[in-house]
């Protein structure tokens, strides 16, 4: 495992300020590589500004160590800046400009990140730094402006850890298969990538959809999350091209309006299609031509009546 070395505020500022030319920037880039960190160009500037503003509030003999930049976990949005404490993790989102106009998007990002940190037994303290206005906001249930002394107080009241707790997380803790991790799916202990969220939300609109991808690309999770989200509002029929497994039957029990059936059942009872607002077909390549014909004939009857047909 790579040993990621955190920055101190004064170390980062000194590297950034060597000289304002290309060679100096290469020095910073080499340092980031040494620290095993990768951040955007604007984030390099934003963290420098944040560090300077914090140092202005500290005595010249005081520094704060433990800063991790650009922590990237699959599925979960990147963590711009982290400082890991004994009981808390301070999670700072850097906004280069117009940060105050992006609170809704930032809130969604924080919400996605929260369960990851809670899952390792830490409390999360979410902060936004708006570089263009040199302003800090603390997010709990809403965004509240705080001063830089408040952020320093939060950090200094706890013990700083010089290791990144998030780097120790096994991806199995947040990447799940709903059919293999049924209990965790029931409890909602899973996350969708931004692309998966976008696809899931598009499926809400009436239409005919196809989701392509090889094994392990998250198609099944998208579909089950779609059912979970819209189960109260839509009657959903999930059709399996193969034989229904025990795991699928177990999952059906958590849904209110959704029903899971085999393609063979649809072939023998085609009228069932008319009872539902959305038809989802998993393993559609295995459908018998007669079943496929029944579903295709259903499409023009229901498709433009706030209904969906989704092939996987």
TrEMBL record:
It comes from the Bacteria. This is Schlafen group 3-like DNA/RNA helicase domain-containing protein. InterPro entries: P-loop_NTPase (IPR027417).
